[in-house]
Write a structure and sequence with these properties.
Elements: E1 2-8, E2 14-20, E3 23-29, E4 36-42, H1 52-63, E5 67-71, H2 83-98, H3 103-129, E6 134-143, H4 144-153, E7 157-163, H5 170-175, E8 183-188, H6 196-205, E9 211-216, H7 226-239
Parallel strand pairs: 4-5, 4-6, 6-7, 7-8, 8-9
Antiparallel strand pairs: 1-2, 2-3, 3-5
């Protein structure tokens, strides 16, 4: 891991940009010298790590006493995408606008993205936990399909807050049965891009008994700010 910039923000949070091999990332750490629990904060694949909503979530969470790390996995942000990925994205957008079935396109596109992203996130977890000032336990926040994959295969993930998406690859729907860590699932009731019933079915599929569903009216990007406050209280209960 090589840090490329460092900035102390107004709230005392330290923001550092880094690279890990070809992977660019950002690490926010709270004021103080006590090792902080770590939150991996992932956006839906394709959005940059500098997305304003993700940065706001990360800064708020760090100010609450957590270290927060995010990366641009392959094909995200400024990292190059293959011609096949670009075509799949275009086909998916066209089919959704036209109201056509998208399951086959989605499965062939998102499934490999999750498989390819998980190793880079685990390598980032290794590197960040080796730094002074960060420690376990580890939580996860964000992209549902990736969160399921990481929670199913990496025992260091101790709690997860997922942004419910109805379109989750079949492999991750099966892996959800293996996820038994405390879980908070955030569902936007009127999400235009994710079928509500599939999200509810996914909640049923998770294997643990410590799972909570928060549903709010509104579209995909309309998650209320108070859910961020609640997610921090969720982490307080399970990571401290």
């Amino acid at each position: 891991m090589r840090f490329t910039s460092e900035q102390r923000l107004d709230d005392g949070v330290l923001q550092r940009e880094f690279t890990l091999g070809e992977t660019p990332g950002t690490l926010w750490t709270p004021p103080g010298s006590t090792p902080a629990p770590l939150i991996l904060m992932a956006h839906n694949n394709g959005l940059p790590k500098a997305d304003a909503r993700l940065v706001a979530r990360a800064r708020y969470t760090a100010a609450r006493g957590y270290a927060v790390a995010t990366i641009d996995a392959a094909g995200c942000g400024d990292r190059p995408r293959s011609a096949a990925d670009e075509q799949a994205r275009a086909d998916l957008r066209r089919a959704m606008r036209a109201g056509e079935p998208v399951d086959h396109i989605f499965e062939s596109f998102i499934g490999p993205l999750v498989e390819n992203a998980a190793p880079e996130w685990r390598a980032t977890l290794d590197a960040v936990l080796a730094l002074p000032g960060t420690g376990g336990p580890v939580g996860y926040s964000g992209w549902t399909a990736l969160g399921i994959r990481l929670a199913a295969i990496d025992p260091r993930i101790a709690a997860a807050c997922l942004f419910a998406g109805g379109y989750v690859p079949l492999a991750q729907r099966e892996e959800a049965r293996q996820v038994t860590v405390p879980l908070l699932l955030l569902l936007q009731w009127d999400d235009e891009g994710n079928p509500r019933q599939r999200a509810l079915d996914l909640f049923d599929a998770f294997g643990g008994e410590r799972k909570t569903l928060h549903a709010n009216l509104g579209g995909h990007t309309g998650t209320p700010w108070f859910e961020l406050e609640d997610s921090c209280r969720f982490y307080d209960r399970h990571l401290r």
